[in-house]
Each structure stands twice: as C-alpha cells, then as structure tokens.
Amino acid sequence: MNQTSRAPLITAIVLLLLPLLYVGSYLALVVPQGRMVFKATEYFPGHEYLCRYRIDSDVILPALFWPLEQIDRKVRPEAWEITPAPLP
C-alpha cells in the first residue's frame, strides 16, 4: 500500500492563501479618504487625527499595511485625496 503524505499539499495551499488574506484584510480595513477620530487619555486632554483604517490604530495597521498602501496610492490617487468637509 502506497502511503503518500498530504502535508506538502496542505502547506502549499496555506502559503498560497496567505497573500490573499493579507490583501483582503487590507481592502476590508482601509478608508482612503480617512475619518476623523478623537482620542483622549488620562494624561492628554485629547486631540483629533485622521485615521485611514476602520480600526483605530496609530502604529500597528499603518506599519503592517504600508507596502499595500503605497501601491494603492499609486493605483488610485484620486481616492486618497482629502476633500474638505462642507460647512453647515
């Protein structure tokens, strides 16, 4: 009886799915035009900043998705333009 291991096949499938997951999560989380977020802490009274992702993250998501963001900025520059909010 010939017993072949399926571990290489499973490993190859997982490794091929990782880039798809990376790009898919970027597309699900990015907000190119940005959104204003107010952040206050115990020691700092608060400030507003422009957040480009759906999850508020100052460092982790911008660093994680930096390569894809640079590609996205070149492919869709009009989506990354900041338009001023209309006055009430």
Describe the structure.
This protein is of the alpha+beta class and 88 residues long. The chain has one domain (13-79). Helices cover 43% and strands 19% of the residues. The chain has a two-stranded antiparallel sheet. A hairpin with a 7-residue loop joins strand 1 (30-39) and strand 2 (47-53). The longest helix is centred in the first third of the chain and has 23 residues, at 7-29. The chain is elongated and about 75 Å long.
Helix count from the secondary structure assignment: 3
What's the alpha carbon Rg, rounded to whole Å?
20 Å
Shape: elongated
Number of strands: 2
- The low-confidence parts are none
Q: Sheet bearing the most strands, described? A: 2 strands, antiparallel
Q: How many domains? A: 1
Could you tell me how far the N terminus lies from the C terminus, measured between alpha carbons in angstroms? 77 Å
Return the average pLDDT rounded to an integer: 86
- Give the H and E element order: HEEHH
- How are the strands of the biggest sheet laid out side by side? 1-2
The share of residues in extended strands comes to 15-25%
Structural class: alpha+beta
| Helix percentage range | 40-55%
Keywords: Membrane, Transmembrane, Transmembrane helix
Transmembrane segments: 6-29
